[in-house]
Specification:
By secondary structure, this protein is an alpha/beta fold. It folds into three domains: 56 residues, no CATH class; 94 residues, Nucleotidyltransferase, domain 5, CATH 3.30.420; 63 residues, no CATH class. It contains eight helices and eight strands; from the N terminus they run H-H-H-H-H-E-E-E-H-E-H-E-H-E-E-E. A five-stranded mixed β-sheet has the order 3-2-1-4-5. Strand 6 and strand 7 form a beta hairpin. The longest helix has 16 residues.
């Protein structure tokens, strides 16, 4: 049955299987457990059967269905962090054919420790267009979405807000004007020792792995008390 093949394959991949031979081997090793909730009328399918079935599935429709299932079984409560990041897949390039490594842009729910969704792109530069596509498929009501400097784009922020989330974006010199404005803003506030600025401040100290890590964070606010959305994080590490 199709559902049996899908469940076995998903469980196997979660546990580290990276090809159909490994998926079939995992199924045979866990056959007794699978029989407690799957029918398995013909036992565990062969690796060829797994390959043939998945080759006939529409990848985009399968991805959409998988993401809908993940979001249905995961409980994202108010204030949870969803981290958006892109990573290159190891050994996914082919120099002989001129094929670049695949980059997967993923949404990771930090508290739930689960990937809510992924979008494939053929290069780091394409993350800018892939991130909004991924965000539009997620339910982010009440969540805080973090994105690195590459994703500091107006269309990314717009997509997050449209899905009901808040955002924390890293600003670096790829956004030259915004980066300089922030530097000037905080420099002026520091020069005046924050006497003329409404702000919040937090400090954390963490020890581990042979180092002491101190983080200091300032958030500037408008005079009416509303958050300006402008933040700076300063981190010091002592080995």
């Amino acid at each position: 049955m199709l559902i049996d093949i899908l469940v076995i394959a998903i469980c196997a991949v979660i546990c580290g299987a990276d090809d159909w031979v490994a998926v079939a081997a995992f199924g045979r090793a866990k056959q007794g457990w699978f029989k407690t909730f799957l029918r398995l009328p013909n036992g565990i399918p062969s690796h060829d059967t797994f390959g043939r079935v998945f080759a006939r599935l529409d990848p985009q429709q399968f991805q959409q269905a998988f993401m809908a299932w993940i979001q249905a079984v995961s409980d994202l409560t108010q204030g949870r962090i969803v981290a958006i990041d892109g990573k290159k897949l190891r050994r996914s390039h082919d120099q002989r054919l001129g094929k670049q490594a695949i980059v997967m842009v993923s949404a990771w729910a930090t508290a739930n420790r689960i990937v809510l969704g992924q979008v494939k792109t053929d290069g780091k530069s394409n993350e800018i267009t892939a991130i909004p596509e991924l965000l539009r498929a997620l339910a982010l009501e009440g969540c805080i979405v973090t994105v690195d400097a590459l994703g500091c784009q107006t269309n990314v922020a717009t997509a997050i807000v449209a899905q009901g989330g808040d955002y924390l974006l890293v600003v670096k010199e790829n956004q030259k004007l915004l980066y300089q404005d922030l530097r000037d803003l905080f420099h002026e506030a520091q020069e005046a020792e924050f006497r003329e600025t409404v702000f919040d401040f937090a400090r954390t100290v963490n020890k581990g792995h042979g180092r002491l890590e101190i983080r200091r964070c300032w958030r500037l606010r408008r005079r009416d008390g509303a958050a300006s959305g402008i933040e700076r994080l300063r981190s010091h590490r002592h080995i």
